[in-house]
Amino acid sequence: MDLALKDLGENIAAVLHHEVLASEIVHDELIITSRPDAIVKVLTYLRDDVNCQFKQLMDVCGADYPEREPRFEVVYNLLSLNHNNRVRVKVQTDDSTPVPSVSDVFSSAGWWEREAWDLFGIYFADHADLRRIMTDYGFDGHPLRKDFPLTGFVEVRYDDEQKRVVYEPVKLTQEYRSFDFLSPWEGVREVLPGDEKAEGGEG
Predict the structure, then answer these.
(1) What's the first-to-final CA gap in the chain, in angstroms?
(2) What are the tens digits of pLDDT across the range 66-102?
(3) pTM for this structure?
(4) CATH number of the structural domain spanning residue 47
């Protein structure tokens, strides 16, 4: 374990003891869990503190754990070039509780927050332009949620008669098949003709 990284995590947790819920080292990476309403303060401290200097926001992404409450995590990955360190900051939320936007702290967060909204349905409060960024304007649902159907809800095609793109409900010509991906010998469950002789122990 990197002792300097452990000391950094303990220092951050001590200074932001009201805002930081947990600090841990997992696979030699520092992970900070923040209260959702304090994420702006936490990221501002990580950016500006002389011992941190995490000046670059590398990514903001979502994660869905539908069996858990709250089901969503927003993950912020930060990089400090001065100290050659990385930190991952996590907050938990649900589909109705907004997370404060950090686009005023890191301007690059604007598009990533739009992506998390589009694909997971995670709201970001005070975002200047929270709209879909990867799917179509009329898209129904959020495709990276674990409970989103594999086929989606509608299919899109160009209609020659109407001379425009039309949306239609998904119609499957056949049901999804279940593949076991085993070899023919491992996948067979019933006794094949002739195999019953081997069971008898003849001769």
Answers:
(1) 64
(2) 999 999 999 999 999 999 999 999 999 998 999 999 9
(3) 0.79
(4) 3.30.460.80
Q: By residue range, what is the domain housing residue 44?
A: 3-148
3-state secondary structure of 199: helix
The tens digit of pLDDT for each residue in 117-159 reads 999 999 999 999 999 999 987 788 999 999 998 888 888 889 9
The DSSP H or E segment spanning 159 is: strand 154-159
CB 112 within 8 A of CB 88: no
User: In 3-state terms, what secondary structure has residue 117?
Assistant: helix
The total of other beta-carbon atoms located within 10 Å of residue 62's CB is 23
- The SS3 call for residue 164 is strand
- What's the per-residue H, E or C state across 47-114? HHCCCCCCCEEEEEEEEECCCCCCCEEEEEEEEECCCCEEEEEEEEECCCCCEECCCCCCCCHHHHHH
DSSP letter at 177 equals P
